Amino acid sequence: MTVAVTIDQVGKNFGSGAPALSNVSLEVKPSELVALLGPSGSGKTTLLRIVAGLEQPSHGRVLFDGQDALSVPVRRRGIGFVFQNYALFRHMTVAENVAFGLRSRPRAERPSEAEISKRVADLLALVQLEAFGGRFPAQLSGGQRQRVALARALAIEPKVLLLDEPFGALDALVRKELRKWLRELHDRTGHTTLFVTHDQEEALELADRVVVMGRGKIEQVGSPDDVYDRPETAAVFGFMGESSRIEVEVKDGVAIAGSTAIAAATQPVPDGPALLYVRPHDVSLGLPGTPGLRGAVRAFRRHGAIRRVEVEVGSALFEADIAPTVRVPVGEAVAVRLDRARLFPPTGPGVDCRPPPPQQPGDYAI
Ligand code: ADP
Ligand code: MG
Any idea where the ABC transporter domain is (predicted)? Predict the structure, then answer.
């Protein structure tokens, strides 16, 4: 059983201060896995709690398959919810935890003990914890506990699965494993799923679609490729991964930093101030005299598997990722190529850039 979820113009005010949500609208298709991605405080949990029925919106509607869901009591809404902090019952075994939702149904709707046992065994197999039914939560690792929490959420055969940073408290390696595991699980079970995270990588790797939130609003909705490669706003670009942010002045479609032309817009952009965003892996360095902007190395340092270099071009400072075997002394002249850059005027959508036309001395003198 899988349903479409419609969030229609939902707003939430908690009283004083800015609204936690303003006019959020979103269509989640049956069996879709949608990630709500945004910084802390952007309203992700509030939205999830409204869909679950744990919170009432100040205005707006929530529909399941076109039917009003807000008037349906929480217990009847058919929601499986997993929180960041494993809310397992400590005094119950794993099997009792998973069975809890079924055992607490009114007698008329409660499956028989034999059916419950069968269902619990199936679910423990699904989350690969067959042998753990008799253990208590304290005897499990964090990752195992979250898998139990998921099995418990699935036990009631929910229409919708809501996951609020379910892997947030786990260490990086376990998170990565569980991410893959959850995607595979979703492909098999096909529950309509809303997954909250503030981790871009997690959202990009897991989700069919990503909803980027900021300050109670949706900034952009799209496929992982859309939001990563074609951010509509500077906020989304900045949030989706590491980047250099350069204040520029646009003149005839050319972005100028100081008095140096650094990029040209591929679509019309108004003259005036704008922001240019570039990711470190989209900047390449060459020997002086090879194609590119004339730059100088300001700093370099080890950065995981690669080496990260700071290069200055005009008044702009870019970060570039290079192979760790390459040495680039501070002060060295280099050719800087922006393989991919995006320009954001103060209003209107971002546009892709290409290299600027050759610059004559005095072209953009200030
Ligand atoms: P996120 O999950 O994206 O971190 P939240 O939905 O938890 O964001 O919070 C969004 C905003 O709403 C924040 O400014 C938060 O302080 C506020 N907020 C959340 N819950 C409550 C509440 N029960 N009472 C008052 N303010 C709240
Ligand atoms: Mg939250």
Answer: 5-240
